[in-house]
Design a protein that fits this description.
single chain; 168 residues; alpha/beta; 5-stranded mixed sheet; 38% helix
């Protein structure tokens, strides 16, 4: 099971779900305390800004980040849940969760997985740059981008409610 949340809900989500693996997608300068029950080797930190274009002084998601993400999720043993979070739990984390589903379920339809995301989170607004990069790395030929475009922008919110996605 994949659980998605904001930074503010990270410790609570890890504790209540029993997760042992965490993916963090936040600005590199954001203060983060890793949950104590998550081994450092089971924590992927991607220090990226929530941007869609290169901006001087910021770190845009890139293809190398996608390779790190996919290497980590493919090594995740799935014995315990995985938590993916960003600052608000709306953009970077939802894009990474969608990309993770697409990577772990290569034969599943992109639109079905995007609709699953929308059903689980009305506020999910996946970062389009992350989705496009994942689409390229996974060789999904634009279908991931089209599916996320089709579900549209999520409802406006300051912080997303934690949600879960089954990996099946």
């Amino acid at each position: 099971m994949i659980h998605v949340c904001s930074l503010a809900k990270l410790h609570e989500t890890v504790e209540t779900t029993g997760a042992r693996h965490v993916i963090t997608l936040i600005n590199g300068s954001t203060v983060l305390t890793r949950p104590s029950n998550v081994d450092p080797t089971n924590h992927l930190f991607l220090g990226i800004n929530d941007i869609v274009e290169e901006i001087e002084g910021m770190v845009a998601p890139d293809e190398a980040h996608m390779h790190e993400l996919f290497e980590f999720v493919r090594a995740w043993p799935r014995e315990a849940p995985l938590v993916i979070h960003c600052y608000a739990g709306i953009s970077r984390s939802t894009a990474a969760a969608y990309a993770t589903l697409c990577a772990l379920l290569p034969d599943r339809d992109e639109m079905e997985l995007a609709q699953r995301l929308r059903h689980a989170s009305p506020t999910a607004t996946p970062n389009p740059r992350i989705v496009a990069l994942a689409d390229t790395v996974l060789k999904r030929d634009g279908r991931m981008v089209a599916a996320i475009h089709a579900i549209g922008r999520g409802a406006d919110a300051f912080e997303g409610e934690p949600f879960s996605l089954p990996v099946s």
